[in-house]
């Protein structure tokens, strides 16, 4: 039976604010380079004032949102469970999802008063991205935002790893996975960020439980999660918790375990200017591929190409023209 949605995602709803900074700026303000750091609203406001950069870009974001956006842009069907406030940024966020053809739990729901979360994405000259995130109302994401009918109508659920940092969102993750497993829906999760994995290893292990159908991570996240000193050891240990998994390797491509064998995905050589959203793009394109008739190897190649395109520009999202060009290249 054909499902209504290829992917049901649940994650933080954050308006991404993209800026270019020098590495000296990060040092001056004591910001940990290359990581995602949670901050309060005042800190984020002060940083924006200090940057004073007029070329600020704004997009609906959040890791899982970027992933379901990729699913939708490539031609798949996606649903996104999230939480935004009844404010200007919340309006912007929902309009962005709607324009992309993504259904959401908030389509016909009353939104609470509060502040919609924002992620300040600071991109340095080496294309690295450093994120300072004020979660706002998304910290109260809970089981109330879980849509059981949409989960049942999906081929995969996709759990954003960042949610383990919120007690209520953690419960939402567990409920989503439980509903999926009870209804024959495949489960997937992303480890999201090395610092999150390090700080919340036990919650990650609890939500993953005996296994997930598909796990996404990069090399560092794989090693931190499995407490391994090298990626080859980590990938063997990941077999214990995931039936299949993808380990992205940046400029070296990716390795995929398809349940039986490892598939090496060759990288596409590009001039990287912004790595923000590369992993999200890979996951979304890969999920689109495997739910639309492509093999694991073919989906990996498609995802690698899409990721190479997204790092060669600013921002975590490709234009529809770029998407169509990628699909033509893969025919």
CATH architecture: 3-Layer(aba) Sandwich
What does the overall shape look like?
globular
Q: Report the major sheet.
A: 9 strands, mixed
* Fraction of residues in helix: 25-40%
Task: Indicate how many domains the architecture comprises.
Answer: 1
Q: For the residues shown, what is the average pLDDT?
A: 92
> What do we call the CATH homologous superfamily?
Ribokinase
The termini sit apart by 26 Å
The amount of beta strand, in percent, is 15-25%
Residue windows where pLDDT falls under 50 for at least 5 positions: none
State the strand order across the main sheet. Answer: 6-5-1-9-10-11-12-13-14
The number of distinct helices, counting runs of at least 4 residues, comes to: 13
Secondary-structure element string: EEHEHEHEHEEEHEHEHHEHHEEEHHH
Multimerization state:
single chain
Structural class: alpha/beta
Question: What CATH first level would be assigned?
Answer: Alpha Beta
């Amino acid at each position: 039976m054909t499902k209504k949605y290829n992917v049901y995602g649940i994650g933080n709803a954050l308006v991404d604010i993209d800026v270019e900074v020098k590495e000296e700026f990060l040092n001056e303000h004591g910001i940990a380079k290359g990581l995602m750091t949670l901050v309060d609203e005042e800190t984020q406001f002060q940083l924006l004032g200090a940057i004073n950069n007029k070329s600020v870009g704004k997009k609906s974001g959040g890791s899982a949102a970027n992933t379901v956006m990729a699913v939708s842009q490539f031609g798949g069907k996606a649903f996104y469970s999230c939480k935004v406030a009844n404010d200007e940024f919340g309006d912007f966020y929902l309009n962005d999802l709607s324009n992309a053809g993504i259904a959401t739990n908030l389509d016909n729901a009353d939104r609470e008063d509060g502040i919609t979360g924002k992620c300040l994405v600071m991109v340095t000259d080496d294309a690295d991205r450093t994120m300072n995130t004020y979660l706002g109302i998304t910290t109260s994401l809970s089981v109330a935002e879980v849509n059981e009918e949409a989960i049942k109508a999906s081929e995969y659920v996709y759990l954003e790893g960042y949610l383990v940092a919120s007690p209520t969102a953690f419960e939402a993750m567990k409920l989503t996975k439980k509903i999926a497993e009870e209804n024959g829906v495949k489960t997937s999760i992303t480890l999201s960020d090395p610092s999150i994995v390090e700080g919340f290893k036990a919650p990650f292990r609890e939500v993953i439980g005996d296994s997930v159908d598909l796990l996404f991570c990069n090399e560092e996240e794989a090693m931190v999660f499995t407490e391994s000193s090298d990626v080859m050891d980590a990938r063997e240990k990941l077999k214990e918790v995931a039936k299949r998994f993808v380990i992205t390797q940046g400029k070296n491509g990716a390795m995929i375990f398809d349940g039986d064998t490892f598939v090496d995905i060759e990288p596409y050589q590009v001039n990287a200017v912004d790595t923000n959203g590369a992993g999200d793009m890979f996951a979304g394109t890969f999920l689109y591929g495997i739910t639309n008739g492509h093999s694991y190897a073919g989906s990996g190649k498609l995802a690698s190409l899409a990721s190479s395109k997204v790092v060669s520009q600013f921002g975590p999202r490709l234009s529809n023209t770029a998407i169509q060009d990628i699909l033509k290249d893969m025919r």
